[in-house]
Amino acid sequence: MTRAEFMGRLKRGLVGMPTAAAADIASDYEIHFEDGLAAGRSEAEVAAALGDPDRLARELRAEAGAQRWHQEKNPSAAVAAIFAVLGLGAIDLLILLPIFMSVVGVLFGFFMAAIGIFIGGGAVMIAGPLAGFPGGPLAAILGGIGLMAGATALGALTAVLTILLVNATVWFARLHYRLLKPALEPKAQADGKF
Questions:
Q1: Over 80: is that where the pLDDT of 130 sits?
Q2: Is the pTM of this model over 0.70?
């Protein structure tokens, strides 16, 4: 593989990352090629030592997504981290995706239930005293507040579980990367390259 082919595939794999980060990564790999050529190796040898550019791009995107999640802790960063991890483990998709989507579906259901209970509690609190709620107006107001408090607790618990799920996904990606990295490095070290 030539330098241009390697860099083209790497840059295509980094599409969607922040432009500055992708440019820094591309610059680093250009330096690897320059150093390898200065040491007397061919472009094909340097490219072989660096590994598959598509896999490198997936690993770099997963690591960038994990770093963004740890810095920002917002829904956008969570989605980016999850999709980066899913891109890293294409084989794992067949096994983990159904489980992961089931868990996400349950969490989404809990969020929707919390919203519905909260709205229902507000309706009981407001309309209960006017509609002749059993126990009187005070029972309607307290019942509505109780439902709203329970819904808030359910929503908070679901948010904590969602954060734990995202952290577990990021942990899995890092573990996956750490397991793959030694498998790639000994070959390069044994060949005397990088």
A1: yes
A2: no
